[in-house]
Design goal:
The protein has 13 helices and two strands; from the N terminus they run H-H-H-H-H-H-E-E-H-H-H-H-H-H-H. The longest helix has 27 residues, at about 205-230. By secondary structure, it is an all-alpha fold.
């Protein structure tokens, strides 16, 4: 069984590599050192959000408040920072506190009120968007500071961006945690059967609380990082991240029903989604064309994944 999962992850990585090769043929220089660094930076934002989404889906849940949590923290960061480095710690602290509160609300709805995760997080996400709109009065204000801009745009040892370094560190941590820790085993057990997991001595509420809080915090942190990337805040920031993160997780081999998969595959899913967007942009494909191609590819990949699982 493990070998089949490994083959599936390898297949997803192979698709990602083939996309890079095709990209270089279609757009010469697509896999240049500089462009790869840019692609990795783009992957970092989605990749950080996808950590929380992976955990939620592994338990049989989902987080549809993720994109609006990102948006709210992005808007608040821009307003608080307002171009000054001395305001950065306060902005980061506010993002962490606000996103933690959102995660707690999601957990309370899912576990205590027994509201399906899809409905609960969709509803909380809608409320968060409303809060974000009221907070900025429909027109986000503020701007990035030298530090937040450098955090996203400067490069570690002249190669990859610092956001990529942060993402890689987080990726290694979550992969190790899922594979070797008690928490990781609890996540998979809850995804298979939460009742059985509870009878086995696993603290289901504690595990779910950590997961939904972590998902929101990582989304909020991504919103903070986005400030350095865009220079200011926009109401459209992170608008596609719900779909993109879910697609990345499932394309990477994690079952939407929970209990099977992992973040290693999600990384490849993030790569596929990011490379596709970057390639279509480089080829000057209109937005309508991008939507059609992205949607079609996601369907093809998902059918391939689930078709293989069904045969197995």
């Amino acid at each position: 069984m493990k070998s089949k999962k490994s083959i599936q992850v390898i297949a997803v990585y192979a698709i990602m590599i083939l996309m890079l090769i095709f990209g270089n043929i279609a757009v010469p220089g697509f896999i240049s050192t500089n462009n790869i660094a840019v692609i990795l930076r783009e992957m970092s934002f989605l990749g950080i959000c996808a950590i929380g989404q992976t955990l939620a889906i592994l338990t049989g849940g989902i987080d549809l408040s993720l994109s609006n949590t990102l948006l709210l923290c992005n808007i608040m960061s821009a307003f608080i920072v307002s171009g000054s480095d001395k305001n950065v710690p306060a902005a980061l602290l506010v993002c962490l506190l606000v996103s933690t509160a959102i995660g707690l609300v999601n957990f309370a709805g899912v576990y205590l009120l027994h509201i399906p995760a899809m409905i609960m997080t969709l509803a909380s996400g809608s409320a968060v968007y409303g809060i974000a709109y009221i907070y900025c009065d429909g027109a986000p204000k503020g701007k990035s500071s030298p530090f937040t801009s450098a955090l996203v745009n400067s490069r570690f040892l002249g190669t990859i961006n610092w956001t990529t370094v942060i993402w890689l560190i987080l990726s290694v941590v979550i992969i190790i945690v899922l594979k070797y820790s008690v928490f990781g085993r609890s996540v998979y057990a809850i995804g298979v059967n939460p009742v059985t997991a509870s009878y086995s001595g696993i603290s289901v509420p504690k595990t779910l609380a950590v997961i939904y809080i972590l998902s929101s915090v990582l989304a909020g942190f991504t919103g903070f990082l986005f400030l350095g990337y865009t220079g200011t805040a926009y109401l459209s920031t992170g608008a596609t991240y719900n779909m993109d993160s879910i697609a990345s997780v499932v394309i990477g081999g994690t079952s939407i029903a929970g209990g099977s998969g992992g973040y290693l595959g999600t990384i490849a899913g993030v790569g596929i989604m990011t490379i596709l967007t970057s390639l279509l942009t480089a080829m000057a494909v209109p937005q309508a064309g991008k939507d059609i191609i992205q949607g079609t590819l996601i369907i093809v990949l998902l059918v391939t994944v689930y078709g293989r699982k069904k045969k197995e």
